Amino acid sequence: MSSREQIMGSKMVENLQEELLKRLDAYGESVMDSKDYDERIKRAKIAKKRKVVQDDEDNVIGNPNVKKKRRKKKRVTETGNLPNGIHEEEEGAQFKLSGKEKRKQELKDELGLNVMEKSEIENNNGVDSTNTTSKNSKVVVYERPKSKKREENKMDFIDNVGDSSTPLIDLKSARLDVQKFGIKGFSDEKKDAAMESLLVKLGAKPKKNKAYNYKEYQAMVQRQKVEEREKRELDRKLGYKVKRKVVAQKKDRNDVGRVDGQVGKYKHGVQFVTRKDLQPGGKPSKKKRKKKF
């Protein structure tokens, strides 16, 4: 080896030694200063985590479940433990959105339109979200609007019925009034009879029949018969048709029913006898004629 090469090698060694000494001095100072040391450790940990996350994302591109879990963890750390998972649902909806819809959602969040929409929905549903007991907890009061309206309508109807001067119409009373008004147009005799029948229908006891003496009653019946006979003769003279009274003749038990003495009827050389033929005074049986078509 030449002298030049030896000189160059010695210079390189000196330079390395100087650099090592400088670094050792810097390291010693960092150890002495605890605050600077803690900050450096935090930075190193964060850098290490970032590297691990990047490596995991590169390795787990086709596994969506892992990504979802990580997103949930991020949401929990950012929003904190909120009741009913309100913010989680909203952020989940933002992750699902893409393109123009995502941009619209971001603009709404910036302008505060989402908060306005929520307040309107709560007011419509009858939810009072202003009552708060603490920063994290809320008291929600829900009131059913339909049930209130129904109760108010019922109360109004009852009040109107109670205050109304016109009474409710009863069909029975209206029917009675109509019948009474109709009876007023009858004559005196018919009016009394109609009123009696109406009272009997309403539940009154009917009037008892008039009691007559037996001899008087017989004379009255005979008088009625004479009047009917005179009326019938008058009608016959005037030319009207008058129906004769059919008087049922009494049968004599000793009466001989048949002149020829034939009992029953013959058919194809056979004699047919019934109970009527065997009775005394029975009529001879009539032969039935066949209808000619």
From TrEMBL:
Polar residues bias located where?
122-137
User: What domain of life?
Assistant: Eukaryota
Query: Which residues are in coiled coils?
Result: none
PANTHER family registered for this protein in UniProt: CHROMOSOME 1 OPEN READING FRAME 131
Q: What is the lineage of its organism?
A: Eukaryota, Metazoa, Spiralia, Lophotrochozoa, Mollusca
What protein am I looking at? Uncharacterized protein C1orf131 homolog isoform X1
Q: Quick one: where's region Disordered?
A: 53-162, 274-293
Q: Which residue stretches does the UniProt record annotate as biased composition, category Basic and acidic residues? A: 98-121, 141-157
Per the record, where are the segments of Basic residues compositional bias?
A: 66-75, 284-293
